Amino acid sequence: MRHGTDYRVLPFSDDTSAVLITGNHRLLLAPADTARRLEAGVDGLLPAERLAWDRLRAGAGIGEETNRSTLSQSALSDGADFAVNVNLTNVCNLACTYCFAEGGDYGRITEAMGEHSIAWIFDFIDANTAPGQRVRFEFFGGEPLANFSVIEKICERARGIAERDGTEFVHRISTNLTLMPAGVEDLFRRFGFIVSVSLDGGREVQDANRPSKNGKGSYDRIVRNLRRLREACGEDVTLVARMTIATAEPSLRDNVHDLWSLDLFDYFQIYPGVYPVEQGTKVPIALTLGDRKLSEPQGITYINHFLQPGIVEQFKDFLVHYPELFAAGNRFKGVLEYERTVQMVTEGATALAFCSGGRTYYTHSPDGSVSPCHRLVGDESFDVGTGAEGITRPHPEWRRTVDEHPVCGGCWARYLCGGGCRQENHVASGDVNVLNNESCQYQLMLAEEVIKMLAASGAQYRGRSRTRYDDLFVSCGRPVVPNDRPAADLAADYGPFRVLC
After folding, report:
1. Is the pTM above the cut of 0.70?
2. Which long-range contacts (CB under 8 A, 24 or more apart) does 27-31 make?
3. Cα dihedral sign for 477, 478, 479, 483?
4. Which residue, of 189, 382, 388, 405, is most buried by count of CB atoms within 10 Å of its CB?
5. 360-382: average pLDDT
């Protein structure tokens, strides 16, 4: 077994390190001296340590490849709902500084989705879902609530199908929640909506990052509407804060705490801001990914905010203190990306891909196009079909497994990450399969820091229920399935090693 490929040593205190086993996501604890020897290779262990390691192979499955076999035997329909991203409109009333959709129209969408598209969407679902598979709607835009009537009609049609044949539908919307059309509270309550709200932090940060197009701030209006929605719907809706972090001050901890203290959100999503600069500099060309000329990779590189000096330290500090957010009296249930990673380790599960794009997730747009990725709607070369005809072009580049990738296939985190974001690869290199180094570094840092946080946490945190993550579109619907690793005796004596999960 090779360090960096088959396992990874992650020191998290002066005297203890975590050891993640790639093949089945077992997490071990080891004294720092033992871990340093293991980092150099299994053959570097002392004789007693090597005997304990061999006992781990027999008693905890160290060396087994349940993740690899789970991935190789999986079907495209495994691990995630069949998801339809409904791109409802080109209209958006905010002017977010890092918008990848060119203000909502992707440089291509010129109208709102009409009612004629509804039949196409349900025909697409009927043609492409596996028997018994759940269907999740992702209402998107622009600002999707600017086309509320089509949302209503899709929901009502889905209800009729559910009553007729038992198909289960999940309804989720990504919105800035500055609009509250008549009837929205009732619809969200009746259909149990997951409402993902674009809110980056407190008033200072939100108004700077996501101002209205008239230049006014958006924070006060959004929070007012959040309170209104929570009061009207109670626990019948799930509220998610979708945070994009692109500033050094206030800090990441402060931004999260500002929203956490509202006690309105069930979950958080935390994304690093990404912006383009000229190669060899750190100076932004523009704080948007929507300008078409910036999609050309020549002379342009993309900077991930969480990899910048000072911000790396903020990120690591936040993960150390993260379990403190699970406080009595606050409805907070977790940061989705962190909790999904924790779930794969504590429960034994495998990511089948980085996202569900081109597998069980497609975007339908008002112009009739079908794309495997909502971020690539503006690029016609990525279209894989039309609403009227369904899927008309094969797209195997979206279905390549992590084990088939020449770089990712040798990475210790491959069954946590799934192989990297193809859209981020494309904007950096022009090729969906050539890794975006910044994105790769961030995913590795996220995995490392979450695992160290988990290793340092108590049994109460480790034992939390994580049953809802299939509903919540974590990491663009990353497909995750149990790896069926054999049960291990956590109390067994493995010398200097301890099996944590």
Report:
1. yes
2. 27/345, 27/346, 27/451, 27/454, 27/455, 27/499, 27/500, 27/501, 28/56, 28/60, 28/497, 28/498, 28/499, 28/500, 29/455, 29/497, 29/498, 29/500, 30/496, 30/497, 30/498, 31/496
3. negative
4. 382
5. 92
